Structures are given as C-alpha cells and as structure tokens.
C-alpha cells in the first residue's frame, strides 16, 4: 500500500478517506497516528476551501518530509449567503458578524452552545432554525483536496461538489455532520440514509478524491 499523509484529525472524514483511497491501494496516515503529542496546529486562515486545503497539505508535508494531502470541506446554503461554508465545522459557535465577514449575504442569527452536546448536532439545530419558514433550501457540499510536496510545491488542487437541498428535519443515522439534513440532487433520501459506498459514488469527497486518484495513477504510478 502507498501511504499518503493526511492533515486531519477528524475521525469521520478520515473514515471516508480510508474507504475511498483504501479501495484503490492507498493508505491514508493521519495526524492521529503521526502527531501523538498533538503539537501540529494548522491555522485555517484561508478564505476558500482550496486555500485551506493547500495550507493543511503544506503544513503536514513540511513537518514530516513527505507528500501531504490536505482536505477542506463544508456545506454552502444559498439562503444563508453561502454560509456556513468554510466555517461548517464550528458553525454553531459563530456570530453573524464573523459569518458575514466571509459571506456578506448571511442573514443573521445567534450562536448556540450547550455543554455535552456534540458540535455536529448543534450545527444541525442552528441550520434548521435559521432556515425556518424559508422555501429556498438549496445547498451544496464542496470538498477541496490539495497534494503538496515538502518544498511547498502544489502538485494538485482539485474540488468536488454535490448539489442538493436541506430537509425539514434530520433523517438517518449514517454519515456525519450535516448528512441527516442534506438530500442530494436526484434522491429523496438524506446522505445519512445512504450506504457509505452510495454516498461516496456521488459525494463532494468522492468526486474530489477521484481527481486525486486519477492524478496519482497518471503522475506517480
Ligand atoms: P473541516 O474539517 O474544516 O474541513 O470541516 C468540515 C466540516 O464540514 C465538517 O465538520 C462538517 O460539519 C462539514 N462536512 C464536510 N463534509 C461533510 C460530509 O460529507 N457530510 C457532512 N458534513 C460534512
């Protein structure tokens, strides 16, 4: 197996990366295994998914001296001006001013906090609350991946997207994050009701990683 260093500690994302890359003979090795002391902190200061993917890939490649893969992803909701977007992971905790800094069309709403409630659940509660009564539920997931050398050369930057809409209530227990609310185009089921392979076949991550795999097979067989 060819190992690829992945600049993430998100177990849900890593599970999907392992599913998709593992099936093609690549073994993602993450910061959970590489950086046991948790010392590598990567500031996600980019203003786009792609910028953040490059930042992550560069940081891990420089630190460990091998090709690095960065992945940045999130959900963009049209009625929210494109938010939560690059803030998807911590949407629940952000005020409207911060969100408007990157998404000027963000309508408003308050952050949510509750002890012992996972961030993903709070994110979904806030998303439903902010969309209450709105008929425009269109949204898309985006996944940016970047492959960077230890000398900070960007070998590949690719993006995958899937269009869809936000349901009225969470349904299903598969996937992660916003999946119980996200209904991909052409389906009546949320991503949380999809089997993993069915999600990967059409998802933003599946599509971005397909481009990565094509590149690896052609350029680094
Ligand atoms: P990142 O780790 O900064 O890239 O944040 C990714 C966040 O976007 C996740 O924590 C989820 O909230 C959301 N997200 C990205 N991809 C997915 C997906 O496939 N399903 C559900 N949520 C996703």
Question: What would you note in describing this structure?
Answer:
Its cofactor is Mg(2+). InterPro entries: dITP/XTP_pyrophosphatase (IPR020922), ITPase-like_fam (IPR029001), RdgB/HAM1 (IPR002637). It catalyses: ITP + H2O = IMP + diphosphate + H(+); dITP + H2O = dIMP + diphosphate + H(+); XTP + H2O = XMP + diphosphate + H(+). The protein is globular and about 50 Å long. The chain has one domain (about 1-220): Maf protein (Alpha-Beta Complex), CATH 3.90.950.10. It is about 35% helix and about 20% strand. With about 220 residues, it is an alpha/beta fold. Helix 1 crosses helix 7 and helix 6 (about 195-200) packs across helix 7 (about 205-220). It has a 6-stranded mixed β-sheet with strand order 2-1-3-4-5-6. Inosinic acid binds near residues 10, 72 and 123.
Looking at the overall shape, the CATH architecture is Alpha-Beta Complex
Structural class by sheet pairing and helices = alpha/beta
**C-alpha end-to-end distance:** 12 Å
Mean pLDDT: 96
How many domains? The number is: 1
- Number of DSSP helical runs: 7
> Compute the gyration radius: what is it?
17 Å
Level-1 CATH class name = Alpha Beta
Concise synopsis of the structure shown:
With 221 residues, the chain is an alpha/beta fold. It has one domain (2-219): Maf protein, CATH 3.90.950.10.
């Amino acid at each position: 197996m060819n190992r690829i260093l992945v600049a993430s500690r998100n177990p849900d994302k890593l599970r999907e990366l392992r599913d998709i890359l593992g099936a093609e003979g690549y073994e993602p090795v993450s910061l959970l295994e590489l950086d046991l002391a948790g010392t590598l902190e990567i500031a996600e200061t980019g203003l786009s998914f792609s910028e953040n993917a490059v930042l992550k890939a560069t940081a891990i490649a420089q630190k460990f001296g091998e090709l690095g893969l960065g992945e940045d992803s999130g959900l963009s909701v049209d009625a929210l001006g494109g938010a939560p977007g690059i803030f998807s992971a911590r949407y629940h905790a952000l005020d409207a001013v911060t969100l408007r800094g990157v998404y000027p069309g963000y309508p408003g709403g308050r952050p949510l906090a509750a002890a012992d409630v996972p961030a993903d659940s709070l994110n979904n509660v806030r998303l439903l609350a902010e969309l209450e009564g709105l008929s425009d539920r269109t949204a898309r997931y985006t996944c940016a991946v970047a492959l960077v050398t230890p000398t900070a050369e960007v070998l590949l930057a690719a993006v995958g997207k899937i269009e869809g809409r936000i349901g009225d209530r969470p349904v299903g227990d598969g996937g992660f994050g916003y999946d119980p609310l996200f209904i991909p185009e052409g389906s009546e089921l949320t991503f949380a009701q999809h089997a993993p392979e069915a999600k990967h076949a059409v998802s933003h991550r599946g599509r971005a990683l397909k481009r990565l795999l094509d590149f690896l097979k052609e350029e680094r067989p």
